[in-house]
Design a protein that fits this description.
The complex is a heterodimer of chains A (276) and B (314). Chain A has 276 residues and is mainly alpha-helical. Chain A has two domains: 3-55, no CATH class; 65-273, MetI-like (MetI-like fold). Chain A has helices spanning 3-35, 39-42, 57-65, 68-99, 105-114, 124-133, 140-144, 151-162, 166-174, 179-190, 192-208, 211-216, 225-235, 240-273. In chain A, α1 (3-35) crosses α14 (240-273), α3 (57-65) crosses α14 and α4 crosses α11 (192-208). In chain A, 45% of the residues are buried. Chain B has two domains: 23-72, no CATH class; 84-312, MetI-like (MetI-like fold, Orthogonal Bundle), CATH 1.10.3720. Chain B contains 13 helices and four strands. The chains are: A mainly alpha (276), B mainly alpha (314). Chains A and B meet through α1, α4, α5, α6 and α9 of A and α1, α3, α4, α5 and α6 of B.
């Protein structure tokens, strides 16, 4: 290829990619800009990427108007509980489905995978009634309940554990190890990368969950960040300075986690995609 | 696969239990399997199977969340649903959002994926930026987009004004509200589709392209006869996932157009929104369950249709 056309082609490709990147980023830029703009300036017809007189006023008001740290803590509790439960159930069931044959194995596996395609939204009403019967409305258990198991997690761990050689397990058995000991001391340590990817996926799912926490909690002290922000919007409908400041507060932890773990997060998401 | 009754492996010399023909070792393994699976299965049955079956059954009843009297209706709820203007509106809105987001989301993501994949410098940075909306939860995203769409002071209309185009009533006017939601949905999911396509593109052996270039094939020919056919499994996957996600859309329409969130907007009623309203605002458990069952059926049929569509013309 000739150097000149290569250079032109590269310029054209970058122009497309930069334009698309700008469209992806602009809403975030606006979130930040508006949150730093004095109320009077927001409501004047002007198009600015940076406020004339930036202010932290909205942040002071927002921090006093809602217990964001509490919301953050609640979200953390629910996501951690969800991730731990999913890691435990997925690795144990994945191990058993990967390495053992027993009567009923295929049927049980089909039952578990069969529910994977059915979205939670379609059965959340009976789910709510079950939580009500348990008296779990307005509790952490209630918020986390739908997030304790993940069909895909079991499938994913099974695929991953299948690649661990049987000889390792047999060697442990000859040394007198029980099956549960093998799970704890052989399978779990060798599955660390897979467990990490699954944990990220589980936390991400739990963190962004909105419709269920909204249905199952009315007690403000149990709100997750998503729910807290939604209620905040309800209270300050068109006070855009404040609600964008609230949005920035809820987005910051997510963006920090994403920038630190970007490789694992992107890989986790693509792994989840492989189930198709 | 071997017969399910066959033990996985015999390590110690089998000490057969005479009347069953199963070694003690095997019984121990079975016990471990069932004990290990028991908690997982209990959770699955209680958190998935029971509510799903209850939903399917409840659709045939007149069941009010407040008064615990259930009356069998047969297909009554379904007949009422088909005549319900809210349901019709929800169905058509959801179908439009699904079709729009699947087509736009797939085509745009595929175009970008091919561009990013062209061994360009800075590709990881582009991926990172396109992925930002995917990892950002829906609620803050909708808060900002609602402000962007604000008819009086919102940045979008300000930008249009700067270009000499009159401002639009984005979330207020019927059709525009639907388009506004569609734009946000595509914006939010584009990065996900893009990453999936990149994975698919990376799985295509480089030799195929080299052979095609040696044979003198042009870019468009290569795309049509090599890239597209080999990308088909991933294309199917993205289309199926996008369809399922689009049919379950709730948070953006709730946050941006519901009266509950205090919006000066025209409600874009979707199936899940309508279901949520019937169930949790009007407490009509049976009616909402019938709607949920229809949603399930639609998603199932569409998924199967997609699979046929993408497999047949091989």
């Amino acid at each position: 290829m000739v150097g000149g056309t290569n250079w032109l082609r590269s310029l054209a490709l970058h122009s497309i990619l930069i334009a698309a990147a700008a469209l992806m980023l602009l809403p975030f830029v606006w979130m930040l800009t508006t949150s730093l703009t004095p109320s009077a300036e927001i409501l004047t017809p002007s198009l600015r990427l940076w406020p004339r007189t930036p202010t932290l006023q909205h942040y002071w008001e927002v921090v006093q108007a809602a217990p964001w740290l509490r919301y953050f803590w609640n979200t953390l509790v629910v996501s951690t509980a969800s991730a731990l439960a999913i890691l435990f159930t997925s690795s144990l069931a994945g191990f058993i489905f990967a390495k053992y044959r027993f009567p009923g194995r295929n049927l049980l596996f089909i039952i578990i995978l069969g529910t994977a395609m059915i979205p939670f939204e379609s059965y959340m009403i009976p789910f709510y009634l079950q939580m009500k019967a348990l008296d779990w409305i307005n509790t952490y258990q209630g918020i986390a309940a739908p997030l304790l198991i993940m069909s895909f997690g079991i499938f994913f761990m099974r695929q991953s554990i299948m690649t661990i050689p049987d000889e390792l397990l047999d060697a442990a058995r000859i040394d007198g190890a029980t099956e549960f000991y093998i799970y704890r001391r052989v399978i779990l340590p060798l599955s660390k990368p897979a467990l990490g990817a699954l944990a990220i996926l589980a936390v991400q799912n739990a963190w962004a969950f909105f419709i269920w926490p909204m249905i199952v909690t009315s007690d403000r002290s149990l709100f997750t960040m998503e729910l807290g922000l939604a209620m905040f919007q309800r209270a300050f409908t068109v006070d855009y300075g404040r609600i964008t400041a609230g949005s920035v507060i809820t987005v910051i932890p997510v963006l920090i986690a994403f920038l630190i773990l970007r490789r694992s997060i992107i890989r986790g998401v693509t792994l989840a995609g492989m189930k198709g | 696969m071997a017969s399910v009754n066959e033990p996985a492996r015999e390590l110690t010399a089998p000490a057969p239990v005479a009347h069953l023909g199963i070694s003690r070792r095997t019984l121990g393994v079975y016990l471990f399997c069932y004990l290990g699976l028991a908690p997982v299965l209990v959770l699955f049955v209680y958190l998935r199977v029971i509510p799903i079956i209850t939903t399917l059954a409840a659709g045939f009843y007149n069941w009010d969340m407040i008064r615990p009297i259930r009356v069998f209706l047969g297909l009554g709820n379904y007949i009422e649903l088909l005549r319900d203007p809210n349901f019709q509106n929800a169905l058509s809105n959801t179908a439009i959002l699904a079709a729009g987001s699947v087509i736009l989301g797939t085509v745009l993501a595929l175009g970008l994926a091919v561009t990013v994949n062209a061994r360009i410098t800075g590709a990881p940075i582009y991926q990172l930026i396109y992925f930002l909306p995917v990892v950002t939860p829906w609620v803050p995203v909708t808060v900002v987009w609602k402000w962007i769409y604000d008819a009086r002071y919102g940045p979008l209309n300000q930008a249009l004004a700067a270009l000499g185009i009159p401002g639009q009533a984005w979330l207020v006017e019927d059709r525009l509200a639907l388009i506004s939601i569609l734009i946000v949905m595509v914006w939010k999911t584009l990065g996900y589709n893009l990453i999936m396509f990149l994975v698919g593109l990376n799985n295509i052996p480089q030799e195929y392209y080299e052979a095609a270039v040696v044979d003198g094939a042009r870019g468009s020919t290569i795309f049509r006869y090599i890239t597209l056919p080999l990308l088909k499994p991933m294309l199917l996957f993205v289309v199926v996932i996008s369809t399922i996600n689009a049919f379950n859309v709730f948070t953006p329409v709730f946050m941006m157009t519901s009266d509950i969130q205090g919006a000066a907007a025209k409600l874009v009623r979707t199936l899940v929104y309508d279901m949520w309203e019937n169930g949790f605002r009007y407490f009509r458990v049976g009616y909402a369950s019938a709607e949920a069952a229809l949603l399930l059926l639609i998603v199932l049929v569409l998924t199967l249709m997609n699979m046929r569509l993408f497999r047949e013309d091989r």
